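Input record, target 12 of the design panel.
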């Protein structure tokens, strides 16, 4: 393709499928490479920008995993962080006081994202298998042994 054809595709909001994550994405989400075999010809890179950068940068790896596992973009993750005042949704510990970033908590049955939690809170819910009655029993146990 010529540079003009590439520009027309971008302007027309064309989409293509990423060979790595299998998502249909706008062509702007793909790097443009110069075709080494043909002078003045270009092509879109096969994997999208996120997939291309997975092995280059840890932030891209995290973004890739969140997109793949939870269909959550970096913008959506950052919006959730802002809504939660950059703190765990359970214990309210601010991210500045944590060693790791907040993780995406989700329902294992429905896949629905509930919020962003610190590792301890996320593990605690996980160990109780999201069972509210077990969590209530644990609260009663702790109250009994104060």
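The sequence produced for target 12 reads:
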């Amino acid at each position: 393709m010529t540079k003009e054809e590439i520009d027309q595709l971008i302007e027309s909001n064309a989409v293509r499928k990423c060979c790595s994550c299998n998502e249909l994405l706008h062509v702007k989400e793909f790097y443009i490479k110069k075709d080494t075999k043909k002078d003045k010809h270009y092509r879109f890179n096969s994997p999208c920008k996120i997939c291309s950068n997975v092995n280059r940068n840890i932030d891209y790896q995290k973004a890739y995993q969140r997109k793949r596992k939870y269909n959550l973009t970096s913008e959506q993750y950052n919006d959730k962080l802002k809504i939660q005042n950059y703190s765990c949704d359970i214990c309210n510990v601010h991210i500045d006081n944590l060693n790791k970033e907040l993780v995406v908590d989700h329902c294992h049955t429905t896949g629905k994202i509930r919020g962003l939690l610190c590792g301890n809170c996320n593990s605690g819910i996980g160990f109780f298998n999201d069972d509210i009655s077990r969590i209530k029993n644990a609260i009663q146990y702790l109250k009994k042994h104060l």
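The chain has two domains: 1-52, 54-146.
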